[in-house]
Amino acid sequence: MHQVPFPEEGRATEDNRYVVNMFRWVFVVLFWGLAQGAFAQAPAQQGGANIPAGLVQKQAFARSLIEDASVAERIQASQDAEAIGLFALAKDSYSSALAAIKDGSFASAEKQLNDAMSAMGKARRRVPDAAALAIKQRAEYEEKLESVESLKKSYLSYLKSAGRKSGAKDGETEESAKLGISRLMEAAKKHATENQMGDALRALEKAEQVMRSAMNRVLGSAVLDYTPKFESPAEEYAYELDRNRSYLELIPVAIAQLKPTDEAKKNVEGLVERNRVAIEQAREYAGKQDYSRALSSIHTGTGYLQLALTAAGLVVSQEPKAEQ
């Protein structure tokens, strides 16, 4: 006599079978999804042929660049349109590379991977991380500090050789400029010591602006505040030689700051060379104690340097000759 299951028992068996079948389908779906993902991320093989090892490595590296979550977040947060566009280009190129690999077009795939890596490199440079940005700003600060200190040295040297009278209106203006420049440079150095490189750079840029304005003002003056007098021709010769040297030191600074055209630079170089010849003649005359001719040669050379500065972009008036 066959045992007849109770109705509840029959339903339980059917429910169990339904649950088992459901888990089987879930497993199949999950396995297929993982397989598809792996297939999309790894280089495919075409016709059983092995993909070049170099291409496999390049694909893995390109993928690591694109899938770097911290970089992707930094790019999106930057709101830098160019960086975001480069990131999108990198992803498109990478997808094209995967498609080319599946088709067996390895040369095309390599080109697309190169494009993807290049785009990612440019995008990352536009939005560097904190450490990279600090290093970049530190290098910019050191370069800017050297430039501003050189400019300040030339500016102060010119003021000294020009002999501005203390207390005169222009003198007061220059004293104010010198004080402002010094304070800005001190602030820049303090910010740099505290690793506030952005503030340090801004302070240096402001100091550079003040210095440029001051240099254009003093070099564009039509006259000196007073004419120095000398005890001897030798003393006047030394003074004029030092003044000539001050102008000469301003030439590279003016070129770096004002960025004249190539044609203007050639003109400047020619005038500097003519000054060199004039100064050599002046030294020869001074060696023979012929200070009259020596001074004449120096004045000629200084005139060439004033013209050179004008060619570089500064408005420099010819200064009157010193009296004995």
Written account of the structure:
By secondary structure, this protein is mainly alpha-helical. It folds into four domains: 39 residues; 85 residues, no CATH class; 96 residues, no CATH class; 98 residues, no CATH class. 79% of the residues lie in helices and 0% in strands. It has eleven helices and no strands. Helix 2 runs antiparallel to helix 4, helix 6 packs parallel to helix 8 and helix 10 packs antiparallel against helix 11. The longest helix is centred in the first third of the chain and has 35 residues. It is elongated. The termini are far apart. The relative contact order is 0.07. The N terminus and C terminus are likely disordered.
Radius of gyration: 37 Å
**How many structural domains does the protein architecture include?**
4
The termini sit apart by 145 Å
Shape: elongated
The helix/strand order is: HHHHHHHHHHH
Overall mean pLDDT score? 76
Helix content: over 70%
Q: Main beta sheet: strand number and arrangement?
A: none
How much of the polypeptide forms β-strand, as a percent range? under 5%
| Structure classification | mainly alpha
Q: How many β-strand runs?
A: 0
Number of helices: 11
Poorly predicted ranges: 1-15, 25-48, 165-169, 222-226, 320-324
